[in-house]
């Protein structure tokens, strides 16, 4: 059977962040409530010149050569921050990246689960078409509003993954477990730009879904916790994944508990300094684990994907010996290190300056834009995308 999985990973987040200790102080909260209680240190600030399409393009450009672009047969774009109720963000992206016109381009939506749906559909496609290459995107901007309970779990960015046969990073196992229920823990009606969330309820649903799919996965595969070197979680905030891991740690030996806990700390490092990516969150956890962890080839990683509303999936994969060749560590580290810290007042101004929903023509200030792909404005109700 063809070995299929993640060959390359790229990541992009804009070049600004707000310090969570400063935000806590501005909101009259103890900084430790954000730093420890939620588990976040920094939060990405998204300028009006970046949306899910441009962030996806900036992430994908890191991993796609002209030769690879010519070989892509499908783009699967997971997002809950779509820019059009009809036209897929994947179509805009395929055009920006100059992909072949005989490319299938689809947008997928189920809260934070969308990129996992894309990954699994891509893997199935490549198993049938071993020469095929699929670009899978998870890109979002998490918005709950200023001075709301969810403000501390905002953020944004994009993950781009190339799914192929004989992958460089991760070979996906064939079996996964998934669970769906109609749950109102988080939703965003079409008339709202910010999400609605029942935070405590959502956390409980997340934890219950994890227990459900983990138990079903074990029953299907006869694997146990001893078969895993690490677990990666969807992390709307890092404390949530830690709670999930703690549910199953008693199944491990004391020595393995130490190993799994250290792996989790590595997996949450980048999320802690970026914030919530919605569909991209789980895969930033993976990338952070690969960058900061102590894993070696041929070790198995477990993944818990969760999308409010609600859908959960547990799946697994085996790390490949040369996994570090699938991403550019120096570029990723430099991208995060070069970000500019903005004040709370500046963050609030940028938050309020997002492209309006009234359809009027807008020309955005793009003079200081550093990203390769950016949004220049809107004319005749059409977004104007540009490449540097």
TrEMBL record:
UniProt entry tagged with the keyword Cell membrane: no
Domain Hydroxymethylglutaryl-coenzyme A synthase N-terminal: from-to ranges: 4-166
Example of a GO MF term: hydroxymethylglutaryl-CoA synthase activity
Keywords noted in UniProt: Acyltransferase, Transferase
Enzyme Commission number(s): 2.3.3.10
Pfam families referenced in this protein's UniProt entry, alphabetically: HMG_CoA_synt_C (PF08540), HMG_CoA_synt_N (PF01154)
Keyword Acyltransferase: yes
Domain Hydroxymethylglutaryl-coenzyme A synthase C-terminal residues, every copy: 173-249, 270-351
Enzyme class name: transferase
Xref: PANTHER family: 3-HYDROXY-3-METHYLGLUTARYL COENZYME A SYNTHASE (PTHR43323), HYDROXYMETHYLGLUTARYL-COA SYNTHASE (PTHR43323:SF2)
Family: Belongs to the thiolase-like superfamily. HMG-CoA synthase family.
Name the UniProt record assigns to this protein: Hydroxymethylglutaryl-CoA synthase
Organism: Levilactobacillus fujinensis
